[in-house]
UniProtKB/TrEMBL annotation:
<feature type="domain" description="AtuA-like ferredoxin-fold">
    <location>
        <begin position="469"/>
        <end position="563"/>
    </location>
</feature>
<dbReference type="Pfam" id="PF23544">
    <property type="entry name" value="AtuA_ferredoxin"/>
</dbReference>
<feature type="compositionally biased region" description="Gly residues">
    <location>
        <begin position="441"/>
        <end position="454"/>
    </location>
</feature>
<feature type="region of interest" description="Disordered">
    <location>
        <begin position="427"/>
        <end position="463"/>
    </location>
</feature>
<dbReference type="InterPro" id="IPR010839">
    <property type="entry name" value="AtuA_N"/>
</dbReference>
<protein>
    <submittedName>
        <fullName>DUF1446 domain-containing protein</fullName>
    </submittedName>
</protein>
<dbReference type="Pfam" id="PF07287">
    <property type="entry name" value="AtuA"/>
</dbReference>
<dbReference type="InterPro" id="IPR056362">
    <property type="entry name" value="AtuA-like_ferredoxin_dom"/>
</dbReference>
<feature type="domain" description="Acyclic terpene utilisation N-terminal">
    <location>
        <begin position="6"/>
        <end position="415"/>
    </location>
</feature>
Length: 581
């Protein structure tokens, strides 16, 4: 007998997300399960430093504070809670939840998932954690847990684990699991699925978007929606944008299943409802990704304000004055941002910013001695000398790297409410993927070379073009994966997609974004989504915590791409209001 759809919501997309979200989701409408995603690469570094100070910490303390009020609401409504807020110490957070339960007088059954912590295997690591799948969560829910706390599981596992419990799926139900993983990927970043960080934000009221939820069916299909009356919007555009976020290639590799993103189909299902169907799944890989953070050294920065005329000469003078001071520093990077305008009517808009970032293994070389030397120039450097902020001490920075370990070597363990420890076996190994398929991306196409204004081989005559920003026709969303970045670009079906597919090659992408030249860029096609996904290797250096780049998580890389101008056929412009919705 088939079971009704699972109604599962999200209440957090990162450590520091909207504090009131848990209360809003529990009171806004019916739910079966509520998830919270608190972990990211930077978060693991933060939690690692917390653990250095106090070995009893290492989890997201915000979750506990949210739960003080939410525990009673969840109990009254029969909502299970699944969260990765356990971070580096899931057992510790589980104990803290039990203590909170006793304090507020709300009886709950608590379980946790562990085994991801591999720090002892990585020399010199602050943290090293394998990305576990959802099977441990499934086991905890099957044992009657009201709250399941995990460490580093994949973000989508917070949804696929409960779905497998709800429908009693087996590990071999690849298509169904893949559908839940895709739904989980849409939910994991909270309001990014409901209009937040959305290219076409002017088409909707996104001042306070509601958090998303999914209605997952037994066959693995799902409807993405939100509670009635909440802000934002759920459209095929907002869901497409999130599907493209932080993905690499057409195969979305996970510890439970490999989801084929080129099989995903989106359709409108009513107001603020988008249906996801057709997702195909394959065997998971035989290895698990391991995220490793290390303390990389010490960094500092000074931002000098250059106002008015002779901006380039002022910058050159300052660099020459500090050249001797910087000789012993391991890494010193200067960036001049020409934010100044000619004949400006305010002083701020007449000013440019010259940023100096220094890194070194020793805090002494980049500490106050260095910044004080910079400030000592105040009366003897360029006219109008001043800085954006007072000089500060050196700060530690971290680096992120990933490695892989055989899944069978990771002790994935579900610790049930009664304390029973259940070992979760690794899924059967997958057959090797086709290198040719991965190399060309879904749908083939020409990853390299310069395209024209009409799809190759279409026989269409060139149309009149106009110089315009790519964003007049296409949406984009970008993000980070360690030191790499991805940029997903999508547009309307039909002629707009044909043009985008033919025109936005790797060569054109790198011409539009010169900072990607000299780096390896891969292009993948997702025809069902009318989208291209680009991955840029190494643009973020050692990851967000190292502060390698002005935009260290590549959050706005896609918006920069949309702002670049190229020749667009006139008949494709202007797009209808709210393109992509």
């Amino acid at each position: 007998m088939s079971r009704r759809p699972l109604r599962i919501g999200n209440t957090s997309g990162f450590y520091g997300d909207r504090f009131s979200a848990l209360h809003e989701m529990l009171t806004g409408g019916p739910l079966d399960v509520l998830t919270g995603d608190y972990l990211a690469e930077l978060t693991m570094l933060i939690l690692g430093r917390d653990r250095l100070k106090n070995p009893d910490l290492g989890y997201a303390k915000t979750f506990l504070r949210q739960l003080e009020e939410g525990l009673g609401l969840a109990h009254e409504r029969g909502v299970r809670i699944v969260t990765n807020a356990g971070g580096l110490h899931p057992a510790g957070l589980a104990d803290a939840v039990r203590a909170l339960s006793a304090k507020v007088g709300v009886p709950v059954s608590v379980a946790h998932v562990e085994g991801d912590d591999l720090t002892s295997r990585e020399d010199g690591a602050l943290t090293a954690n394998a990305y576990l799948g959802g099977a441990g969560i499934t086991a905890c829910l099957r044992a009657g847990a009201d709250i399941v706390v995990t460490g580093r599981v994949t973000d989508a596992a917070l949804v696929s684990g409960p779905a497998a419990w709800w429908f009693e799926w087996a590990p071999e139900d690849h298509d169904r699991l893949a559908g839940a993983v895709v739904a989980g990927h849409v939910l994991e970043c909270g309001t990014q699925a409901t209009g937040g960080n959305y290219s076409f934000f002017t088409a909707h009221d996104v001042r306070r978007p509601g958090f998303p939820l999914a209605e997952i069916s037994e066959d693995g299909s799902a409807v993405i929606t939100k509670h009635p009356g909440t802000g934002g919007a759920v459209t095929t555009g907002t869901v497409t944008a999130q599907l493209l976020y932080e993905t690499q290639g057409v195969r979305y590799l996970g510890p439970d299943v490999t989801a084929r993103l080129d099989t995903v189909r989106l359709t409108d299902d009513g107001a603020d409802r988008v249906r996801i169907t057709g997702v195909r799944g394959e065997h998971p890989p035989a290895t698990l990704k391991v995220g490793v953070t290390r303390l990389g050294g010490w960094r500092n920065e000074v931002v000098f304000v250059l106002t008015g005329l002779d901006i380039e000469a002022k910058a050159a003078l300052l660099r020459s004055q500090l050249a001797e001071t910087l000789e012993g520093v391991a890494d010193a990077a200067w960036t001049l941002a020409r934010t100044d305008h000619a004949d400006a009517d305010t002083q701020e808009t007449a000013s440019a910013l010259l940023r100096l970032v220094v890194r070194d293994p020793s805090p002494d070389r980049v500490g106050r001695a260095l910044t004080s030397t910079a400030i000592e120039l105040a009366l003897g450097s360029y006219p109008g000398f001043h800085v954006a902020a007072p000089p500060g001490p050196a700060q530690p920075y971290g680096v992120f790297a990933s490695s892989y370990v055989p899944a069978a070597e990771v002790p994935h363990t579900a610790v049930l409410p009664d304390g029973t420890r259940v070992q979760i076996p690794a899924p059967p190994a997958a057959p090797p993927a086709s290198p040719a398929f991965e190399a060309r991306g879904s749908g083939g196409g020409a990853p390299e070379g310069v395209g024209g204004a009409a799809p190759a081989g279409s026989g269409a005559e060139p149309r009149e073009t106009v110089r315009a920003p790519l964003g007049a026709l296409a949406g984009a969303r970008s993000g980070d994966k360690g030191g790499d970045a991805n940029v997903g670009v999508w547009t309307r079906p039909g002629p707009a997609w044909d043009w985008l597919r033919a025109t936005l090659t790797v060569d054109r992408f790198q011409a539009l974004l010169p900072e990607t030249r000299g780096l390896t860029v891969h292009r993948h096609e997702l025809p069902n989504l009318h989208a291209l996904n680009f991955t840029v290797t190494g643009i973020l250096g050692d990851g967000v915590a190292s502060g390698h780049r002005f935009d260290p998580q590549a959050k706005a890389l896609g918006e920069w791409l949309r702002a670049r101008h190229l020749d667009i056929p006139v008949h494709l412009l202007p797009p209808p209001e709210g393109t992509g919705t």
